[in-house]
Target: 3-hydroxybutyryl-CoA dehydrogenase
Amino acid sequence: MFAQLDKIVGPGAVLASNTSSLSVTEIGVHTSRPGKVVGMHFFNPAPVLRLVEIVRTVVTEPDVIADVTGFAERLGKTPVVIGDRAGFIANALLFGYLNHAVRMFEQRYATREDLDAAMRLGCGYPMGPLALLDLIGLDTAYEILESMYRQSRNRLHAPVPLLKQMITAGLLGRKSGRGFYTYEGPDSPVVVDSAPGVAPVDPGEVRAVRAVGVIGTGTMATGIAEVFAKRGYDVVLRARTTEKAEAAVARIAKSVNRAVSKGKLSESDGAAALARTAPVAGFDALSGVDLVVEAVAEDLAVKQEVFAALDAVAKPGAILATTTSSLPVIECAAATERPGDVVGLHFFNPAPVMKLVEVVRTVATAPDVVATAHAVCAAIGKHPVHCGDRAGFIVNALLFPYLNDAVKMLEAHYAQAADIDIAMKVGCGLPMGPFELLDVVGLDVSLAIQRTLFNEFREEGFAPAPLLEHLVTAGRLGRKTGKGFADYTAQ
Model:
């Protein structure tokens, strides 16, 4: 088509391709004007989405880039200028994440509903990965991944076999009426089937939970204690000293009183929640609770010490839960004589606000413990999603490789951090760009999670980006130190 256009239009005309993954350079060489060939990748639906990726090749003339960029701005779009490589910014980062989600589903690690809910509720994404693939079209996604893999040779870009199988069966997503979900008809957004992709949690007997213990005094511990107290549970908050426990309860009181002042909680309910919360210093005070939630530092040795102490005092049948976001739950269970009673309950921060809880079962967790954890989450107004005990669970295992890929993209001088952030926020509707998010999370925390993922899966693509390691070594940890990928000291 470009070869034909080249013969028709005037010599000064610019030829632009809307390709989302093909090489603009290969398109341009089929003309007599490769210097005037450029990528102009709009996002769908074009009248609504503001991002346009302006793709320059090694021979595109600088004034052509300037003219096309200005033209995009006059259209009311937000242009970012990048080099010519498969996937450009948005798709290169997005489709690795989508492919990883399909792999999780293919391995029956989590249901399609739980995968989608985890990313919507845990990260604030507008759509879950499998619902998004249905919207894009599985055949389109497959071609983009193939194009990326041919260029990158990154195994994480190799399309998951399930995609090819579904395409062969005609399950292309919304446009065919069926993909990961089944719809009312072709091109309909209305999901009509309710059968989950893998077996749901066993709805068998659940254990009675009336009193809850929370161990820790940090933001996560106090937030979890507040959630349970406001929902009518008796809460025992354990700290190393009585003074620390009382200080933690004081912070809960401040949060509860703030909710009362804003009209989110009645004065009587707030007072009742605080009356149900008892600060303690010893483990013995946890002997009568039905569920203990550990929320201490992300240090395996510290957690194992806590679980060993709990094992000595907790009553028979009490459920012992850890809020770890990346450490093996089974390692905590191994510190006890009751591994069947141990489960992961990964709350998201801030716990009183975030709806998601990842319920993590180990190979030893008893079915009624999983069922009870599910029921308790529902009772406190949270949305439980279920997964097995492996690094990152659902959210971090999908989120941090994407963030790591963004750092590698910056490291390769392919695009600036600000442009990458703009591409993912404006083009994909994400609440934060990858570098904004990394600075909020903390680069040291992010590096630790990425190392955990790499050590568990041994995927070359999961190896932490050297730039991330260098910034941590230099003490640039993000907002908490004033400098990370951005400099906050001058703001």
